[in-house]
Design the sequence.
């Protein structure tokens, strides 16, 4: 028992260090946690032993898995149904292009340029097809684009992209057995009932100190996650859809979202991202740096080639289209989840996992820096940013702090109208 508590203190200490680094360096907390996990595993492994960090222990795996599930739910809950009613055609075209082009491009590069097996190549396509909703949302919020049709369309397209990633992960890698129809039928029944039952149930019994709402959501997520594992699928798949279905009710409950964020980002996601980083093999990256280069370039080229023409089809100016395209090229959470899924199920080996995660991290940082430095469409920004739009308490804004490329609240309070990044 003493060892368990001591090990827990080590993990929380690493999470605290990662948070401080994110604040000092003005980078994503999730990115910082992955890097800290990689360095910690390397250092502790040399000093104490290869398994001293306990990344594969049952309780660490449970907390990390719960973090991934709840984080995925929150990502789905960020969906604004009103956006699709206004920009549904553009969102579908751009979102599908943003998913399809890098999915096929990265898979082809992994198969024919790197010589990976078929399963590993498809997994690379899935992991590198993502767009980080959180990175895009953070930048849109900071610059005021979230109040414009331009920013809302971009956010809606992000959700379409990630939905394609989630579906591809489930369809390609889930074994089709007699359990599959049972899982699909259970999902269909739950997905039909939840949007009807949840708001009424919360109005009747919610609003109490006992946090009934949180327990209800966790029950649905755990139950469907368990059923997904039983069917040979991945728990994050139903979690994302549940979040999307409840976006119109749970997603607009500011207090509930804030409490879920506290649980998720205060305790759960550090275990997930630090654990994900601990599986990265630095020697594998050093031994074959060109693998990282091929994967990163494959994602960037295919994203640019697929998204830019789709954006331009809706009559955006070249600068607006390039900024749109570069922001759609970012990725982090779902890319990491997909890579960790592949590692856990034996689809990819530790070396391939290390290169995939490195490429995902690169795609979270480099396109954002280029977009904001050279292609920002400042003429589309509101002349005055309302205070309500800048506050970090906007529903779901802080819920995306696990992926924020910039410290939104700090920068907005200090220089809310600045276009500098």
Sequence:
């Amino acid at each position: 028992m003493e060892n368990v508590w001591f090990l827990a203190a080590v993990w929380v200490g690493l999470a605290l260090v990662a948070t401080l680094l994110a604040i000092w360096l003005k980078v994503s907390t999730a990115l910082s946690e992955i890097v800290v996990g990689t360095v910690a595993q390397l250092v502790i492994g040399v000093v104490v032993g290869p398994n001293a960090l306990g990344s594969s222990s049952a309780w660490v795996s449970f907390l990390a898995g719960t973090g991934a599930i709840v984080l995925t739910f929150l990502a789905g809950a960020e969906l604004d149904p009103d956006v699709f009613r206004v920009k549904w055609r553009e969102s579908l075209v751009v979102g599908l292009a943003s998913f399809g082009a890098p999915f096929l491009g990265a898979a082809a590069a992994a198969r024919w340029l790197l010589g990976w097996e078929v399963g590993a190549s498809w997994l690379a396509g899935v992991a590198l097809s993502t767009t980080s909703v959180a990175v895009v949302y953070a930048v849109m919020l900071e610059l005021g684009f979230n109040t414009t049709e331009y920013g809302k369309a971009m956010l809606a397209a992000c959700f379409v992209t990630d939905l394609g990633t989630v579906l591809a992960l489930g369809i390609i890698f889930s074994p089709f057995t007699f359990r599959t129809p049972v899982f699909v039928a259970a999902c269909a029944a739950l997905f039909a009932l939840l949007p009807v039952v949840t708001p009424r149930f919360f109005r009747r019994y919610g609003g109490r100190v006992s946090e009934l709402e949180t327990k209800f959501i966790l029950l649905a997520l755990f139950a469907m996650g368990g059923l997904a594992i039983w069917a040979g699928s991945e728990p994050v798949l139903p979690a994302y859809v549940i979040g999307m279905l409840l976006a119109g009710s749970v997603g607009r409950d500011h207090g509930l979202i804030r409490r879920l964020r506290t649980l998720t980002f205060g305790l759960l996601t550090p275990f997930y991202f630090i654990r994900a980083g601990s599986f990265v093999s630095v020697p594998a990256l050093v031994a074959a740096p060109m693998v990282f280069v091929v994967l990163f370039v494959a994602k960037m080229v295919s994203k640019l080639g697929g998204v830019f023409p789709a954006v331009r089809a809706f009559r955006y100016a070249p600068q607006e289209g390039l900024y749109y395209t570069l922001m759609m090229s970012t990725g982090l959470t779902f890319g990491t989840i997909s890579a960790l899924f592949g590692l856990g199920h034996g689809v990819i080996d530790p070396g391939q996992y290390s290169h995939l995660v490195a490429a995902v991290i690169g795609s979270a940082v480099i396109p954002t820096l280029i977009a904001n430095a050279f292609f920002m469409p400042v003429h589309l920004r509101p002349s005055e940013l309302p205070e309500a739009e800048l506050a970090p308490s906007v529903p779901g804004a802080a819920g995306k702090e696990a992926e924020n490329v910039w410290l939104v609240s700090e920068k907005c309070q200090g220089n809310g109208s600045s276009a500098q990044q």
Notes: Residues 385-421 have pLDDT under 50 and may be disordered. The longest helix spans residues 81-113.
